[in-house]
Amino acid sequence: MRRACAHIDANLDAPVTLRTLGREVGLSPAHLQRVFSKALGVSPRQYQEARRLDRVRTTLRDGKPVTHALHDAGFGSSSRLYERAAKHFGMSPAAYGRGGDGAEIGYAVARCPLGCVLVAATPKGVCSVRLGAEERALVSAVRDEFPSARLAPADRRLHTFLTRIVRHIEGRQPDLDLPLDVRATAFQRRVWQALQRIPYGETRSYGEVARAIGRPTAARAVAQACATNPVALAVPCHRVVRADGAMGGYRWGAQRKRALLAAERSAS
Fold first, then answer.
1. The whole model's pTM is what?
2. Distance set, CA 62 to CA 10, 55, 68, 99, 101 (Å)
3. What angle do CA 203, 208, 209 make, to 5 degrees?
4. Do 164 and 234 fall within a single domain?
5. Tens digit of pLDDT at every position of the chain (268 positions)
6. Which of 54, 60, 79, 218 lies 20 to 30 Å from 185 when distance is taken between CA atoms?
7. Residues 151 and 72 in one domain
8. Which domain holds residue 27?
């Protein structure tokens, strides 16, 4: 499957059929489809599309025009790219390339037992949940991610999301079901979905998560996916620990991770 992924990555600008890919790795098309989907959680076609969108994102971030990004990633038409980009970027490719120009992102901040928590959302769903000591730093981080987006005042829906998150931190709302609008590679999305299935008050090791997604040797990649999770709590990466039971890393600080797990154990 590593060879299959490498072949897809090397041919993002051209169609890769199951027959061609099967010949490359020595498997029949049907068997390849089954094994690939089991190992990665997505089909070869879905994997290629996710990698193409990743290339578009990188090209746009480098300041190249949409048409250049479109052809460089192998999208045959702008309509096809725009159809898929909304889910991946949370906005049009052109807006993303301009740092979120034209996008409307609402945000709200509240005090909580962990310091401050910020929630930001597009009209499609929550795009960022951040923890920190100061409101100013949290808001600045959102502006850095989308420097040209219009940060709008929080509406009633956003305050509802924020209230749920604070209650969750306090241990008063175990289930945190929020609509999300996050960008992710196929692998990241697979990992984050696995994290959302970890029951409240329980933990899993990085290796256990890797095995759960059919990638038993990918514990380090799982740790990286946890570290890049943009929606703390909504995707509970704090529930992933080292195999020896130690806390392991946490983007928002080991002390906050320890406090979250202690609160969940007490409320369970």
1. 0.66
2. 20, 11, 11, 11, 15
3. 85
4. no
5. 889 988 888 887 777 889 989 999 999 999 998 888 877 767 888 887 777 777 766 665 555 544 444 444 445 444 444 445 544 455 454 555 544 445 688 999 999 999 999 999 988 889 999 999 999 999 998 888 777 678 887 888 899 999 999 999 998 999 898 999 887 777 888 899 999 999 999 999 999 999 999 888 888 889 989 998 999 999 999 999 999 988 888 999 999 999 999 999 988 7
6. 79
7. no
8. 2-97
